[in-house]
Amino acid sequence: MELVRAALAGDRRAVARLITRIENNCEDVQNELAELYPYAGRAYVIGVTGAPGAGKSTLVGQLAKAYRASQPKVGVVAVDATSPFSGGAILGDRIRMRDLAGDPGIFVRSMATRGNLGGLASTTAEVVKVLDAVGYDPIIVETVGTGQAEVDIARLAHTVLVVEAPNMGDEIQALKAGILEIADILVVNKCDCVGAERTSAALEMMLNLDRAGGSFHDMLCSSLALLTGPPQPATALAAGKAADADAGNRWRPRLIKTNALQGEGIPDLVQAIADHRQYLEASQELQRRDWVRVMHELEQTLYQALMKRLLDGIDPAHLTNLLARVVAREIDPYAAVRQLIAQCWS
Question: Same domain, yes or no, for 254 and 328?
Fold first, then answer.
């Protein structure tokens, strides 16, 4: 595990090579991740999502520089869409953040989705884990920016920023379910543009509809607590009760206006993130979100392991024959799946 030791010692090239091995699912990469695992779990993860053209990459660059002023190492993971035709990706986030390249304390990694849906690559969580283990904190994760159903970042990040820009929809658009519901902080970027005030007003209206406040995170974590009952130390419970009295037990998403190109509003945004982190720590939501993340990670890992075991145990000729029968409507897909499972575990 020489590569892992070099990465832990601060070798940026070793970190980059390790991430490449994760993306390519190289042999023994799970063993390398297992060796890194005890060192992870310390970094604070900030997710940045929103529609294409909202200025996410520019905002992430400004956030990285703001955190770098007080932190020795800041990580950035930027996910770009993969072409369904050529299989390639432009990785334009790397181009927009080129002014960060000269800072040895900032590590920027661009990733392609490689066909994965939900706004992240299938290995984004593992890449975040690597940066976490080698000391990058905070870690900013920028999603693809594909649309209203891009909510995977809610399971990975501690604080989720949803970036909106003026003139990208009307008041009805702001009310639609989906990506806006995962926001811990709403960011109206390009606030110098015409229509910024109208966009801000529409988003404020959306927030006011839910008088109790809260977000997708809160609902997800509360449901998990009822199902699994995560440990609740007396000290954490006391802190949570104090937070409940002060904040009504729920976080009301903030709305921050920025002009990322000029750096305007970035200090306010950094402060809002700090306030949200303080709320999470005081109310025990930080621990609950870690439970959500780990449960999802275990579920995905188990799914992949079971699928691999299933496919490895299937006779290719039998699979081809079943496919032909399904196409010919001689058998339905459900019966075909039952036959495949019976063949594998008989």
Answer: no
Instruction: Find tokens 């190492």 and name the residue.
Output: 73
Residue 318 and residue 172 share a domain:
no
How far, in Å, are 4, 287, 331 from residue 292 at the CA level? Answer: 27, 9, 39
Could you write out the three-class secondary structure of 324-335?
Answer: HHHHCCCCCHHH
- What is the number of residues in the chain? 346
Per-residue pLDDT tens for 217-226?
A: 554 454 444 4
Question: Which are the contacts of 57, defined by CB distance < 8 A and separation ≥ 6?
Answer: 78, 92, 93, 96, 97, 142
Is the distance from CB of 139 to CB of 76 less than 8 angstroms? Answer: yes
Same domain for 281 and 317, yes or no, is: no
How does the average pLDDT of the chain come out, rounded?
80
Q: Which residues pair with 79 in a beta bridge?
A: 111
pTM of the model: 0.80
Residues 217 and 336 in one domain: no
First-to-last C-alpha distance (Å) of the chain: 38
Residue 94 within a domain: yes
Degrees to nearest 5, angle at CA 231 with 226 and 234: 115
Question: Are both 194 and 325 inside the same structural domain?
Answer: no
Which residue ranges in the chain fall short of pLDDT 70? 82-98, 114-119, 145-150, 168-179, 210-248, 346
For 345, the token pair is: 């575990």
Residue range of the domain that includes 337: 313-344
CA distances from 115 to 47, 203, 274, 308 (A): 20, 31, 34, 19
Helix residue ranges, H only, the chain: 2-8, 12-23, 29-36, 56-68, 92-96, 124-133, 153-156, 171-175, 196-209, 216-228, 234-247, 266-283, 285-312, 316-327, 333-344
Give me the number of domains the chain comprises: 2
How far is residue 33 CA from its own chain's centroid?
A: 19
Domain co-membership, 75 together with 197:
yes
Q: Are residues 264 and 329 in the same domain?
A: no
In a domain, 228, yes or no: yes
Is-contact 236 284, C-beta < 8 A?
A: yes
